[in-house]
Design goal:
With about 170 residues, the chain is of the alpha/beta class. It folds into 2 domains: about 130 residues, Rossmann fold, CATH 3.40.50; about 30 residues. The protein is about 50% helix and about 15% strand. The chain is built from 6 helices and 5 strands; from the N terminus they run βαβαβαβαβαα. The chain has a 5-stranded parallel β-sheet with strand order 2-1-3-4-5, with helices on both faces. α4 links the parallel β4 and β5. α2 packs across α3 and α5 crosses α6. The structure holds 5-O-phosphono-beta-D-ribofuranose (RP5). 5-O-phosphono-beta-D-ribofuranose binds next to β3.
Length: about 170
Amino acid sequence: MSRDAPRVGILMGSDSDWPVMEKALETLRRFDVAAEVRVLSAHRQPVETADYAATAAGRGIEVLIAGAGLAAHLPGVIAAKTILPVIGVPIAAKLEGLDALLSIVQMPPGVPVATVGVGRAENAALLALQILARGDDSVAAKLHEEKAAMAEKGSRADQALQRRIADG
Ligand code: RP5
């Protein structure tokens, strides 16, 4: 694990969200970007959550990723207390995550939360990395490499499919 100061905060409403949210940490580690991870429930720890959001930027955090399920208020409550970009990850605790998706994405005017798909913690990390890459050439270079590798994989799959079709 990187010993650098954390640049990204990965937050979740419950430790039951960790199996999904750990994908965000894994993705950030792949890019050598340090993160801090916290369980902070908007409902069960309201004071601690508000304090975290209000102090994150001052401690050097640049982007926040917040995952929650059910009445998923954590990303919005965090966004209310900071001007750091907040990326919300809906967790499928009930209703296949539709409840959390709508709760996170339907923020009122003035308080945006960038919302990824249900359970898509790795995409939240990639979006956080893309934000960091605006001022970090090393992260930008790794993101370009990753995109090229993805395109290469797709091309190989396409070529293999063409061969299978041609062979009948
Ligand atoms: C939400 O309630 C959490 O984000 C979690 O997805 C869901 C269930 O929490 P637990 O009852 O498992 O702690 O606040």
